[in-house]
Amino acid sequence: xxxxxxxxxxxxxxxxxxxxxxxxxxxxxxxxxxxxxxxxxxxxxxxxxxxxxxxxxxxxxxxxxxxxxxxxxxxxxxxxxxxxxxxxxxxxxxxxxxxxxxxxxxxxxxxxxxxxxxxxxxxxxxxxxxxxxxxxxxxxxxxxxxxxxxxxxxxxxxxxxxxxxxxxxxxxxxxxxxxxxxxxxxxxxxxxxxxxxxxxxxxxxxxxxxxxxxxxxxxxxxxxxxxxxxxxxxxxxxxxxxxxxxxxxxxxxxxxxxxxxxxxxxxxxxxxxxxxxxxxxxxxxxxxxxxxxxxxxxxxxxxxxxxxxxxxxxxxxxxxxxxxxxxxxxxxxxxxxxxxxxxxxxxxxxxxxxxxxxxxxxxxxxxxxxxxxxxxxxxxxxxxxxxxxxxxxxxxxxxxxxxxxxxxxxxxxxxxxxxxxxxxxxx
Length: 427
Description:
Blueprint: H1 3-21, H2 28-36, E1 40-42, E2 46-48, H3 52-65, H4 86-98, H5 104-113, H6 124-133, H7 140-143, E3 158-171, E4 174-185, E5 193-197, H8 202-216, E6 221-224, H9 233-242, E7 245-248, H10 258-271, H11 283-298, H12 310-315, H13 327-333, E8 336-341, E9 347-350, E10 353-356, E11 365-371, E12 374-382, E13 385-392, H14 395-399, H15 416-426
Parallel strand pairs: 3-6, 6-7
Antiparallel strand pairs: 1-2, 3-4, 4-5, 8-11, 9-10, 10-13, 11-12, 12-13
Helix pairs in contact: 1-3
């Protein structure tokens, strides 16, 4: 519990006993009975009900110690481990100083292996808390890294993006893992769009980014980690075409994307518990429930770091939003791009399939763009301009096409009779 939480609890308690302190009630017992007959939403603790003796205790504490006495008491041994003795603490810290290159998990396993501590008496979490209090969690170079909180004062300057593991769905007797892709605006904390999928490949990430842009405009920068999907060539090219600067975190440094990580934490705390009474039966069902929660709960409720909801703050800066209203053109920016040499029969091979191109391109090396999810539609480009379409080859249709007969020109044609006459003269 933070100091702010303790202060909020004390204010709540004071609100209940204030009428008694100021003699604003005719009967103390009647007032206590009325208050204790109700449920109350208590800061930090949630929904509670109280006994009259509890309120009388608060009243007595306030008269003795003032407002501070109404704050919940902290642990008397706060900052000290209950299971790690001072001697063992010094031994662990000294060992950690010599093994800063190890992760905390490997360091703990080494302590157990060397019989420095017994796992049934000192848990990993106890050692973790000790090292955290001593700022010894990370290797030396990470421990020296300085972090400063920042936030842009304009919307759509920076979006943070990431993927989080979602809930498992049981479909057809199989348990399938879901993945949640999302982007968040750094200034307003608005999530323009997010969606669950069964795969963590490029396609679902692309779909979320496209929908985010269509809904909330084009950001100036996108900040993502070093996952494979965020290094895809198609993403870099699309961002360049849209005027977006694509930047990546340092390797093994997820803490640098704190806002999107906190959003995923909010999803775990506030959305996932809602699924307990209405477990989705399909991926579409899961997304439908999530989108409803995202728009009605997260984006619309006041944010703890703001004076308003993310939605209201985003709408307060319309001049910072550069809209992109052509979904067809946006889709093409994310097409996969490859180069092929046109064969003598005016065909190219793409994804193990033959495609026909205009005959004038025979022998040339051309650029083709297509959506891997719809490989039947292939477009031919030259200097970023579409110049043609490649159609899938149908051998059956080609066999029935009537081809134009090639005749010799009249001035060069030789009749069969003339040819025989020439042969007789030679003899």
